[in-house]
Specification:
four-stranded mixed β-sheet, 15 helices, alpha+beta, five-stranded antiparallel β-sheet, about 425 residues, Uridine Diphospho-n-acetylenolpyruvylglucosamine Reductase, domain 3, CBS-domain
Length: about 425
């Protein structure tokens, strides 16, 4: 293979790795997960990369750097004779040659190896990823030793040197992936992906058995502000709580008048009433499936949940409902990672907001779950109040030790099995 062929092959490879990396970052993870569930080979491959994104990024970075090194060396060997011949003797020299080779190589790499492929690959990232899933999987195994060494070294530096507690563990998709699928029917038709909506509705059939009260954000955790509050106070509430929407009420939380989105502050309103959006009202007994259908039909993403007496039971978003189908989805109310750790054969540490059904299923426990959704709710009900830190409560053969508690709920607790379940 001559120099020209090497240059062409390596710049194409560099462009491929740069473009596929951007396609991976820009892709809709929910669409990939649905393809995997339909049995697609590309979906299965990409799903494995999504669950360990460091491997994909490591593969593209190493592949790109190898291609660039070979390209730069070949370009230098090719250009040097021409530069020596064309540059006047008065200014020729090693420095001049190096400068010109660097400038020419940089331009070619930036345009053909970065700019152009990233524009092309971003046009339809999911389709491109599906097409190249098998080749990138082959490259990963080809570079496997280098990739694993780089990933292990980076994790070591991040966790033990920079103390960042880095982990690849994360939800497969987030709320923006859901909005991309649910709220953009035109894009679905354009990409020929209408069946994705059908898949979502098929999976949502079981939601008829789930009530809104089981997936809502409970009243104590709703971030709300009085309608007569100042715009400055509204800004501070957005900054302090790091959310995109704040519920607005008149006099008390049982009289919600709507919500405000943080983008509305760009309009420089004089008072909160100038930027309030109406919020639909639903009963806590409504089936989650009906609410999901209503969200999609009305293009809404948040609702006010009331109890049988007309008081506020909580707030529910489209992400909360869809978590019942696809599992945990990170949204603005998920400030911290849930804690779940088995510390001995009979002892566990959990976040208070962990769902009892999840804990029972994963750890083969038999915690009572008839009237409660979370561990915090179970303990508070059994204690008949919010217990103090380090307080110990026994419920149905389990010993609960409160490790961390706030004014509104138990944040972290330890569970010990007292008898064989």
């Amino acid at each position: 293979m001559d120099s020209i062929q090497i240059l062409i092959v390596t710049i194409i490879l560099s462009g491929f790795f740069s473009g596929i990396e951007l396609a991976f970052v820009s892709s809709n993870k929910l669409q990939i997960e649905l393809e995997r569930k339909k049995g697609s080979l590309s979906g299965k491959i990409l799903s494995r990369f999504i669950k360990n994104q460091s491997r994909f990024l490591g593969t593209t970075l190493i592949g790109n750097n190898i291609a660039l090194i070979i390209f730069s060396l070949s370009m230098s060997l090719l250009l040097e004779p021409f530069i020596i011949e064309l540059v006047p003797a008065s200014i020729s020299g090693d420095f001049t040659s190096l400068l010109l080779i660097t400038l020419i190589t940089t331009f070619v790499v930036l345009f053909f190896g970065e700019f152009l492929p990233k524009i092309l690959f971003r046009l339809n990232p999911n389709s491109i990823l599906s097409f190249f899933a098998l080749p990138i999987w082959f490259v990963y195994y080809l570079l496997y030793p280098l990739v694993e060494i780089m990933v292990a070294l980076s994790k070591f530096l991040l966790n033990y040197v920079f103390r960042l507690n880095y982990t690849d563990a994360a939800p497969v998709f987030n709320k923006y992936d859901l909005e991309h699928i649910i709220k953009n029917p035109y894009l679905n038709k354009q990409n020929g992906d209408e069946d994705i909506k059908t898949t979502i509705f098929e999976k949502a059939l079981f939601l008829i058995e789930v009530k809104v009260r089981e997936c809502m954000i409970p009243r104590p955790e709703v971030i709300a502000l009085e309608v007569k509050s100042s715009i400055q106070e509204l800004k501070k509430t957005f900054i302090r709580n790091k959310v995109s929407r704040i519920i607005i009420y008149d006099t008390n939380i049982d009289n919600i008048v709507g919500y405000v989105h943080h983008f509305e502050l760009l309009k420089k309103p004089e008072q909160i009433t100038d930027i309030i959006f109406p919020i639909p009202v639903i009963p806590e007994s409504m089936p989650a499936r009906d609410l999901l259908s209503r969200f999609i039909k009305d293009q809404k993403s948040i609702a006010w949940v009331i109890d049988e007496y007309g008081g506020t039971a909580g707030i529910v978003t489209i992400e909360d409902v869809l978590e019942e189908i696809f599992g945990e989805i990170r949204d603005e109310y998920d400030h911290d990672e849930f804690i779940e750790k088995q510390i001995s054969e009979t002892e566990y540490i959990f976040s208070g907001r962990m769902e009892i059904d999840y804990v029972n299923e994963k750890y083969n426990l038999n915690l009572p779950d008839e009237d409660f959704e979370t561990l915090s709710g179970l303990v508070v009900s059994g204690h008949e109040s919010i217990p103090d830190m380090n307080e110990v409560i026994e419920i149905d053969g389990f010993e609960f030790t409160v490790l961390n508690v706030s004014e509104k709920r138990i944040e972290t607790l330890k569970i010990k099995i007292l008898e064989k379940q």
